[in-house]
Predict the structure.
Amino acid sequence: MAGRPDEPGAKGPGDASPGPAILPTREALRRFIREAPGRVGKSEISRHFGLTAEQRPALRALLRELEHEGALQRAGGRQVRESGKLPDMAVVEVSGTDPDGDPLARPVGWEGPGRPPLVYMRPERPGQPALAYGERVLARLRPIGAGKYEGRTFKRLGSGGPSRILGVYQDGRLLPTSKREKADWVIPAGEAGGAEDGELVLAEPLPGRALGLRPARIVERLGRMDAPRAVSVLCIHAHGIPDHFPAEAVQEAEAAQPVALQGREDLREVPLVTIDGEDARDFDDAVWAEPLGEGWRVLVAIADVAHYVQPGGALDQAAGQRGNSVYFPDRVVPMLPEALSNGLCSLRPGENRGCLFVEMRFDAQGQKSGHRFGRGLMRSAARLTYEQVQAAWEGTAGTPVPPQQVAHLFGAFRCLLSARERRGTLDLDLPERRVLMDEQGQVRDVIPRLKLDAHRLIEEFMVAANVCAAEELERRRQPLLYRVHDRPSDEKLEALRQFLDSMELDLPAAGELRPRHFAQVLERVRGRPEERLVHETVLRAQSQAAYSPENIGHFGLALPRYAHFTSPIRRYADLVVHRALIRGLGLGTADALREEEAERLPDTAEHITRTERRAAAAEREAVERYLASHMASRVGSMFDARISGVTRFGLFVTVTTNGASGLVPLASLPDDQWTHEEAAYRLSGRYTRLSFALGQAVEVRLAEVMPLTGGMLFHLLQGSPPAGGGRRARLRRLPAASPPRGARGAPR
């Protein structure tokens, strides 16, 4: 039997003595991976340490443990490398400049978790020519903080350059729409492609010249930048989101026919209802509940997308490439063509629809006593909105379904909610904004999106159904695409602990940490001036959720296993889970998960995790740009805001009423020598004794809006309140010291 990885005497890299091999120690394994000339996988590790095939499962478990602890990270495919610092020398690409005009760069080919580290490039010698956007260099790197490095050019490698540039054509120039690109491009004569001034265009670089603006050729015209709905067009192209289906995929969708009852359970007499937002475009889940003794019986029915999107077809390839639908305020880029997403797969009221369903039974305490899956034919009794259901529950309005049905839904919800509260989940208040547009496509208003009990009802039902899917596939030993959420990394936890210690708050050791411990911290500061600051900091410490064929559990939901089953119209992950259920339950053959699909699950997981994050970035940018457009007429106005980011070059602030965000440049703060206290998320003035911290309430004036990039600049007003949002304090300079000339700026 393989030895425990912590046992003394485990074989190390330099141990070549004969005898039965045992697992290497953690340190020996990390040392081998660190010293290996490239990435390594389980085969290389097994050969080096002389491990047998029987020891592979124990090795996989050890690698998973090290990965979860943050000691190792995936490096493409099934290979790993040591987490943490970049090498002392690496190839980086210039991606922009900071407010002081110094180049910022990112490592080329970054495959680590989260965002790539930021490299602040410094001249190697006085008079060295400045680095241009897109230029690649071999750089010497020195860590200067979490995820930050100082870089000095060792060798210039030329331009990695963008393959395409998105911008606005104006007077023979291309003005980039990205905040990261600071320089314009010149469009030589004959290379404008018929574009007119003010048009949003795509261009590609031409062979450059040593001096002056870089040349580019316009290859696609996207419409006028000032046209209604231009923002979503811009975001679609900026993030490379596919927005046209191949003709074959559209033909497959339009040739689809409604499902028949044969081979399905008839659910048409069950009064299932869909509950979605007022602006929902597709309806892929329906719910129903009734009392069962002292507990509840809950039915969740999900559109049977797998019936129409079969493995390997044109529809499947198009959906897999997109990975998910992308939702903008004025349009949707769907994962499936409209004939399916808004047609045969949408659970419209009064129309027969194929579904996969799960029937769940819960006791009075919300503990699941059993479940079963099936394939059915349903007919939605009503399309309800969250607001309608909430009003019906509160008795202020009616719905198309009997009040008793709404009461049953809320009864089952309260039961599930009590179980969730006992489990102890991480419930962070994530503010969402809703962009309201008029018929001409112009922004009418931006308002907070309310979180009602009706929202939480659907959320609890969907979480329960997703857990059942994961359990069922594990029980039947089927390939499974988990939805995983790791605990915060050790680095983030250490920074968070330092911050919480300053407020006499604490967290248990990493091995004992549970989501409820974060909830307890938030509860302790409820109603205190620093509540918002602590909330923001805890939020920033969390890891991102992802898809993986290997289970590490879902930290935020405090669940040991979790999968996505409930939204196959808009998420490819759910479609994969449906196919696995169909295979495991023997509910079909043509639309069941195939073996070659199962073998590709690691690659599928990585791909759809990337497309999900791409969609989130595009959706976020669209809202920010629409907000900038909405705020353009309010330059000079005053707003209550909170500090939402602290950097060495200034503060980011978010307006309280509508969520508009922008930069307060360091140069606009009172004249002082400002120190960036990274662990405390604070800028402190040496001479004025002023400090500005994350979450602090401030009053700001909108100084500038840049419609082209969507950026906004704010200035702090004198009289902004101190950290914690207490009484307003006039900004004043203490007489004890006065700053020397040129003292502005954080030390480098």
Remarks:
- The two ends are 54 Å apart (CA to CA).
- The chain has six domains: 1-83, 89-159, 165-227, 247-482+556-618, 487-542, 635-748.
